[in-house]
Structure formats: C-alpha cells, structure tokens
Amino acid sequence: MSNKTLRLVITTLLLVAVVAGLFGFTPAVHAQDKIKVGLSFSDFATERWKNEEVLMRGLLEGKGYEVLSAEANHDVKLQNDQIDTFVAQGAKAIIVVAEDGDAAVTAVDKAADAGVKVLAYDRLIKSSKIAAYLSFNNVEVGRQQSLGVLKALGFDGDKTGSWTKDNPVKLVKLGGSPTDNNAILFRQGQDEVLQPYVDSGVITVVADQWVENWDAANALKLMENILTAQNNKIDAVVASNDGTALGALQALKAQKLAGVVPISGQDATADGCNSIVKGELTVSILKDIRNLSPLAIDLVDKLLKGETVDGLKEYTMAELTNNKDAQGNVMAYFLPVVQVNKDNVYELVVKSGFQSYDDVYRDIPDADRPERPAEATPAM
Ligand code: BGC
What is the pTM of this model? Predict the structure, then answer.
C-alpha cells in the first residue's frame, strides 16, 4: 500500500469514528460485558506454549471473549495462585497446561466447584472435575521416538543390524519432567518398542533419567555425567523432547558424538528441525498445535454456550496415568502425531508452514538447501 493510500485509509477510518461518536454509536459489546476465559501455562521455556497462547488468544478474542493469561515459570504454587486469581476475576472457563498434574488439582477443583469449566490442555490434570482433556496420542509419540532411533541404528523389522547379545546397543533414556503425566506416557510408548530388545539382550540400558522441568540445561548436565560414567561408550539416546535432546546434544558434541549417536526429540521445534537438517537430531515428533488450539477453543465455546460437544470419549484415570489405583473418569480426545526425520522434514514441517524455511535451514549453505517452497504458508 502506498503512503498516500495509507493516509487516505487512516483519515477515512478517523472520520467514520468521529461520525459514529457524534451519533452515539458504540461497540455492541463493552469490555466489561465480555465473558472471560483464562489461559494458564506452566512455562514459556518450551517453544510451543507461547505459540499456543498466541493462537488461543486470537481465536478467543475472535469469538468475543476477554482473555486472561498467565505463565507460571515452572512454579506449581504460582500456577495454582494464578488459577485462583482467574476465578476471582470472574473467568467462566480456564484452559490449563499444568506444571504438575497432581498439584494443579487443588486450584482446579476449587475453580470447578465455583462453576468454572476447566480444560486440561495437552497435559492431564488428575481430577474428574475437569470438563475435558485434549491432547495428542502421547503413547504413540514415545513409540515413534524409539522407532526413529532404532531405524538409525540399523534395526529393520525383525532384523537388528549389527547389534547382538554380544554387541548390544548401549542406550540412554532421558525422560521428561517427572511431574508431567505426558512424560509417563511417552516413556510407556518408548518402552513398548525397546523392551523386547532389552529382554533379548540386544539393547542394554546404561542410564535411565528424568529431566526436571524439561530443562535443556539439566539434560546437558545429566548427559555429561552419563558420558563420563560410560567412558563415552554410548550408542543411542531416547530423549523425550527437542529441548532436552538439544541439551544432551551439546554434551555429545563436546565429545564429537553429535551426528554419530542417534537421538530422538519431540515438537518439531525450529531449533530441533534445524538440528535434523544438520544431521545431529535424528528424529522429532510433529504434533500439530494448529489443530489442537482451535479444538480447545471450540470446546470451551460450546461448553460456555451449553451446546453439545461431540467426539469426546470417556477414559478412566487409571488408563490415562498408567496407575491402576487412580480414581475417576474424564472425557478426552487425542490427535494423531507423526515422526519427523531428515527425509520428510521439508514436506511435513517446512512446506506445511509449521516452521519457516529460514529457521529450518539456518546456517545451511544455499547449495545444500532444497528449493524455497513457492507458497509456504507463513510459519507460526
Ligand atoms: C508436551 C511436550 C513438551 C513438554 C515440555 C509435554 O507435556 O506434551 O510437547 O515438549 O511438555 O514442555
């Protein structure tokens, strides 16, 4: 748009506003009349959460809601206080990414008792008072992480490549945050694939750790210690997301093992995909948040309007937590996930606009890049 046209548009808009004011036109809905919806995030350290905040805020505002938003910087108590505050401010629904699926129950139950619809977003909150739980197929995430790593080691169907009982894979497991129920589900899926080989002796698990707060710096430290203890003799790492995998990769890189030792991640982050094209991260998992966020907002909107919600299924808390003693049921829905590797990152991540071409191919010489997609949907 030229400067002249821009000036004309602005002048016209100002005139319309002045005339509307003179004739007493005011917007149909005053801010104080808007229904409030809270967005409560565990942290913004993992790339996806800020993106989802932006997505959900836009969708909610588009539907005429007022958005309250807070991020708890991994502080369980702070997150509960923030949820309490939303209730005090009159929120009618709250979407929660829980730092701790047990601890959040205190605030969430209070909110639900006050009539607020609470949606557990991506991570389970262990209360049957939540209105619903929306997530991805988290067990499948874990399966695909292990499968991606095994493929890179030369496993193929029943064949185990050069690995035998006498020459087993020395494998490191790096789980996510122990307070995140998803970390348990990822581990369940990872083990489903790995366990038969562990039982037959073709894989030896040399270290098995959980990464507090999903923090990359913690993963780096853990990996350094593991490498020291194992004299650098490790063959594979099943890490549970891109952030922690990239932390572990820094430790591997210092020992010249990046790109040599296969390692998994999750989220298809910009940095993760860049590492994939550089041949360091072996596999990530694409969970298309562009589908999850709209689903959550549609659900909240329907719940608040008292409309029927289709597609949810009832699950027992026991099956969702892998804990037979867990009580109660919740209504839930899970979206599919897909493995991302060197061969499909361009199609799945770049061409679909999930990440930008420039982020994914950062530092890659022009001659080694694929063609820039003609009509790449703008990245999030
Ligand atoms: C999410 C992952 C994310 C991790 C760390 C998990 O609950 O499912 O996508 O990488 O938390 O934030």
Answer: 0.91
